[in-house]
Design brief:
The chain has about 150 residues and is mostly beta strands. The protein is built from no helices and 13 strands. It has strands spanning about 5-10, 15-20, 30, 45, 50-60, 70-75, 80, 95, 100-105, 110-115, 130-135, 140, 145. The strands form three sheets. It has a five-stranded antiparallel sheet with strand order 5-6-7-8-13, with no helix packed on it. A four-stranded antiparallel sheet has the order 1-2-3-4, with no helix packed on it. A hairpin with a 5-residue loop joins strand 9 (about 100-105) and strand 10. The chain is globular.
């Protein structure tokens, strides 16, 4: 495994799970937490995740009651949002920011995605920055989403 993240429950049982990427295959797995510091058998929830340089568990960003994942694609530097389904699986990724978009964090402030140059039509790009506040797990402004390229799931 070359990427491990967790601290949220993805399968709906209320126990924190781990999400891990297998380096040799690019498969993404959920390791269901048992609630006693151990984990159940892993379940494959995705493939081609070796195309992502970063994979992180982020809580419930879209307020649907299910934990989500953010990932950064190595080839284009784009940040993708993968909504949790609540049953241990993830929805298809949607692009959040690309190009010169940066993820910043200042002490005592929200994490912000400040947009820069993006590809695609202007309608597909956010018109300004959006920010996520970890303490309240809320977006101050929702970005415009686009579907992830094929193979990111």
């Amino acid at each position: 495994m070359n990427a491990i993240t967790g601290g949220h429950h993805y399968n709906g049982d209320g126990k924190d799970d781990l999400i891990a990427r297998e380096a040799s295959t690019g498969y993404l797995y959920i390791h269901p937490g048992k609630g006693n510091g151990t984990f159940g058998s892993r379940l494959k929830i995705g493939s081609s995740w070796n195309s992502m340089s970063e994979v992180t568990a982020v809580g419930d960003l879209n307020h649907d009651g299910h934990a989500d994942v953010l990932a950064m694609r190595t080839s284009n530097g784009c940040l993708y949002f993968y909504g949790g389904n609540g049953n241990g699986t993830l929805k298809s990724g949607v692009e959040m920011a690309c190009g010169r978009a940066v993820l910043t964090r200042s002490p005592g402030s929200a994490t912000s995605i400040a947009t820069g140059t993006r590809t695609g039509s202007p309608a597909a790009s956010p018109t300004g920055p959006c920010s996520y506040t970890p303490a309240t797990e809320s977006w101050a402004r929702a970005p415009a989403f686009r579907s992830a390229p094929a193979g990111a799931r």
